[in-house]
Specification:
By secondary structure, the chain is an all-alpha fold. It has one domain. It is built from 16 helices and 4 strands. It is globular and about 70 Å long. This is Fatty acid desaturase domain-containing protein. It comes from Fibroporia radiculosa. It holds the Pfam family FA_desaturase.
Length: 420
Amino acid sequence: MAHLVQDSPEYCARTKTAFVPPTLTLREVHAAVPKHLFEKSTGRSLLYVGRHVAMAAGLGVLATHMDALVELLVQGPGATAGVRTVLWAGYWFWASVVLTGFWTLGHERAQCGHDALFPVPAANAALGLLLHTFILTPYFSWRTTHRHHHKGTNHLDRDETYHPATRDDLQLPPEHLAKFMDYEELVEETPLFTMYKMVLRQFLGFQLYLIHNRKGNPKYPPWTSHYKPSSLLFRPEERKYVVISDIAIASMLLLLALWICQTSWANVWRLYFVPWLWAHNWIVTVTYLQHSDPTVPYYRNNQWTFLRGSLATVDRPIFGWIGRYFWHGIAHDHVAHHFFSGIPFYNLAEVTEAIKPVLGDYYYYDSTPTLYALWRSFTQCKFIESCGDVVFFKNQYGKAARECATDIGNHAAPVETQTL
């Protein structure tokens, strides 16, 4: 069991090396990828979508007959209650896995938001709207901010999500003056309180981000919302699409309300909302661990480039075959996704293998067990310094797991990527 709470060899190796900003070029990375991997197959894409819909439908049918199945299989109150509990727990887990797969198909992995499933952009948008609305995610609004994330990944002024707190935000003394007692409040946080904050973030964090920009870019005013067409998140020409997303979400909520009226709140709660909450937990797990890691840099000013931002990403085999099969490799091939967001998800594993030799040590992979990696990032990624062009997370003792080389001036961003 000890291996479940240990850092991976890849992670440990990164903590032992000073970080030097990469000077690779996009041309080198693109040249490594065979051209046929850029091709989109409508038939293959529909097959993946159809397979996922069939799994969801099968689980739904099974769940609606769950109690009758239990009565048929076992006799006796104690046995019936035990079997019912096990079967419902199994349904909630697998249904949440499938709902998370809808989210990845709708935008992040099958990349309808990047027009990567079908050759026709309108077809991608229609599918993305349907799939995201089913899990109460405003498709067009999220697509807009997600594209901004791709254009400014780990840029402290431009990125949209999971913005780290700074030393100034926490009102900590300057690093050269800070003493252990200055970090006392961070250190004294009890494991129980930490767990409470994690549960809140895991199950509600994504919706809170959509509703009022929780953990989003602080450059926006309070209560900036994905549901508000006039929000500064959107350009004027994008606001009509935000309205469409809002109408779609309102329609889904109406359908759920009618379902509750026709059956009961308890029925809809256990069939839809419990797996929906768990799906949010998986979504937050995946998206948080993609970029929030003690060994991954953040950039300011002229040290950021599109290539460096794309490399500030960690590939993880989250839940092994479950993540590969049901979540379409969302965590397995995220580096490749950032470089080639228009390539279909089913080709990204090959893309990953093609670019790894070019990226070398700048390809970040981490086989640390998922739940431990989540706890590690949540407890060690406390804040960053308020100044510095290349910074890393610091823990509750004010220590960084990795440092940047002092001669970053000799590793200026390549001119080729400055404007991307």
